[in-house]
Amino acid sequence: MKVELDRAGVRHEVAAGDLTDCAATSAAIADIGNKLGRIDGVVNNAGINDGVGLETGTPERFAQSLDRNLFHYYAIAHAALPFLKSSKGAIVNIGSKVALTGQGGTSGYAASKGSILGLTTAWAEELSAYGIRSNCVVPAEVATPQYSKWLEKFPDPNKELARIVAKVPLQHRMTDVDEIAAAVVFLLSEKSGITGQFLFVDGGYVHLDRGLT
């Protein structure tokens, strides 16, 4: 990404760090905001479906899962808030269909994604007085390198992929990362006029009756 931004001549700052270190995360956001002079939008996206289930996990591993998937959403938004108040910017959280459909064996991830929906609504209500919008993009099955790596765990990855996409009503295909990005850009835009909403970019996976396809 940095190479692409360099080639495009887009001014940018990059900060590498551990998102589970909330103090370091907050410092990085403040540093970038001060260097650029403003922050117009925050996109919270980092997370991993780490398989911490009720049977397969422990309370300690569950807490670690929340640390990896939830706490940095708050830390980043909190650190960016003074800049967002000034710019009347926007927050876009990336959630997951798992918050609504469940998955089994992923208690930590599911709890985090459910909480992200709650935070999105709470922030929309709390920050509307400042002109700050808060929304959540909810993907289902997205073609990412991480997803491909997960598929490789199966004896026949192609067979498993075919089973999954058969459940997606729209064209029986994975959602493309560019489709997620386009939704995020729209919600960041002042022209969206949207706050407190969950935008499902999932090919109809969650809300359409898959039995009809």
Give an account of the 3D structure.
With 213 residues, the protein is of the alpha/beta class. It has a single domain (2-212), classed as 3-Layer(aba) Sandwich (Rossmann fold). It has helices at residues 2-8, 22-36, 59-69, 71-87, 98-101, 107-127, 145-151, 157-165, 177-188; strands at 41-44, 90-94, 133-139, 198-201. A 4-stranded parallel β-sheet has the order 1-2-3-4, sandwiched between helices. Helix 2 runs parallel beside helix 4 (71-87) and helix 3 crosses helix 6. The longest helix is centred in the middle third of the chain and has 21 residues, at 107-127. The mean pLDDT is 91.
> Per DSSP, what share of the residues sits in E-state strands of 2 or more residues?
5-15%
The chain-level structural class is alpha/beta
Regions with little confidence, pLDDT below 50 for 5+ residues: none
Distance between the termini: 37 Å
* Helicity, as a percent range: 40-55%
Shape estimate: globular
Write out the strand line-up for the largest beta sheet, numbering strands in chain order.
1-2-3-4
Topology pattern, helix = H, strand = E? HHEHHEHHEHHHE
Number of strands: 4
**CATH fold name, please?**
Rossmann fold
CATH architect. name: 3-Layer(aba) Sandwich
CATH class: Alpha Beta
Number of domain modules: 1
Rg computed from alpha carbons, rounded to a whole number of angstroms: 18 Å
**Sheet having the most strands:** 4 strands, parallel
- Within CATH, the superfamily carries the name NAD(P)-binding Rossmann-like Domain
Total number of helices: 9
Mean pLDDT over the full residue set: 91
